[in-house]
Amino acid sequence: MKIIVIGALPSSLYNFRGQLLKILKSTGLEITSLASGAKQEQINTIESLGSKYIDVPIIRNGLSPTQDIKTFFSLRSIFKQQQPDVILAYTIKPIIWGGLAARFVPNCRFYALVTGLGFAFQKGSWKKNLLMKLVAFLYKAALKNAEKVIFQNPDNRQVFIDQGIVPEHKTCVVNGSGVDVTHFEIKPLTSEPRFLLIARLLGDKGIREYIAAADMVKQQYPNAYFQLVGPEDPSPDGISLTELEQLNANHSVDYVGATNDVRPYIEGCNIFVLPSYHEGLPRTVLEAMATGRPILTTDVPGCRETVVNGYNGFLVEKANADQLAEQMIWFIEHQDSWQKMATNSRSMVEDKFDVHKVNKELMKIMELDKDI
C-alpha cells in the first residue's frame, strides 16, 4: 500500500511528522513525502525516517494564481505517477491543491489535517473578508471527496462546519501534533523572573503585545528578563526586523533570532508565554509543558486547550497587553506557585499530548492501525 504525505516546509516533515513517518514505515507502507525547496541535508533526514522524497513547488504564503496552478498540476502529475492508496495533506496550500489533485486519482483515500486556520480566516478589512470567502470556497472544493478532515481543536472544526465547508460526519479532532516527551527532559526552575516567547515574527503570534507587556513589567520589575526566539516570516502578517527594532525601542526584550533546537531556550526560562491570536494547537507550548514550565497564553482556539487556569498556568485575553503584563507581574510576585504549575504542565502533556498517543489516533482515523 502506498501513502503520500504532503507538507509545505521540508522541516515540518521531520519536526512535526517524523514520528508519524516512522510508524507508517513500521506497518510496511510505501511512503513518499512531498514538500517544497528541500536542501540535501533535509532530504537525507526525511529519507532516514523511511520515506522517499519528491520536491514540489509550493508558495506557502500569499495568493499567486500562476504559482498555485503550477502546484496543482505538479501534484496531479505526481499522484498520477505514484498512484497512492492514501494521501495525507496538512497546512492550507497542500490541503487545497492536494485535495483538488487527489480527485483525479481513482480509489485513493484523501485525508486533510487542519493545523490551524491562519491569517486567511481572521476577519478585518474588506480585503481580508474577501480572502476568507475565497479560501473557504477552495477548502470546500478540495475537501468534497475527503475521507476525513482532522482538526487539532474543536473551535476550528466548528468553523468549518458552520461555514458549510465540510459536513460534521466527516470531521474529527486530535490533540495537536503531539510532542515526544522523551526528547524534552524536566529541568529545574530557578528563582529569576525569566519569560520566553518562541514564535515566527508574525503579528498574530502576539509579538507586539509581548514587547508592550515587557515594557510595562520592567517599569516595576527592572530585573525581569524577556526573550524572543523565532525566524522572520514572509506572510502578509509578518513583522520585519526593522519594525521589531522599532517596537523594541526600550530594549525590554532580548531577540536572539531563529534556532534549530528550542530546548536550551525553554530550559533557560521559568515562564513560557504565547500571546497568539489563534492556533491549531501550539507545539512550542507543548514543548515547554514537557520541559516542566508554567504557561501564560491566550484564551483562543488551540491555546486554551493547553492550559487549565490556575493549574498549569493562565489564559489571558488576546491582543490585551495590559492583561498580559498583569499576569506576568502575578508570576513574579507568586514564585511559590511556579513548581506546582510546572509539575502539572508535564503531567498534562504526558496524559493528553504524547506524540505516540496522537499518532495512534491518526492511524486509527486513516484506517491504517491494523498492524500497530
Automatic annotation (TrEMBL):
<dbReference type="GO" id="GO:0016757">
    <property type="term" value="F:glycosyltransferase activity"/>
</dbReference>
<dbReference type="GO" id="GO:1901135">
    <property type="term" value="P:carbohydrate derivative metabolic process"/>
</dbReference>
<protein>
    <submittedName>
        <fullName>Glycosyl transferase family 1</fullName>
    </submittedName>
</protein>
<keyword id="KW-0808">Transferase</keyword>
<dbReference type="InterPro" id="IPR001296">
    <property type="entry name" value="Glyco_trans_1"/>
</dbReference>
<dbReference type="Pfam" id="PF13477">
    <property type="entry name" value="Glyco_trans_4_2"/>
</dbReference>
<dbReference type="InterPro" id="IPR028098">
    <property type="entry name" value="Glyco_trans_4-like_N"/>
</dbReference>
<feature type="domain" description="Glycosyltransferase subfamily 4-like N-terminal">
    <location>
        <begin position="20"/>
        <end position="153"/>
    </location>
</feature>
<dbReference type="Pfam" id="PF00534">
    <property type="entry name" value="Glycos_transf_1"/>
</dbReference>
<feature type="domain" description="Glycosyl transferase family 1">
    <location>
        <begin position="189"/>
        <end position="347"/>
    </location>
</feature>
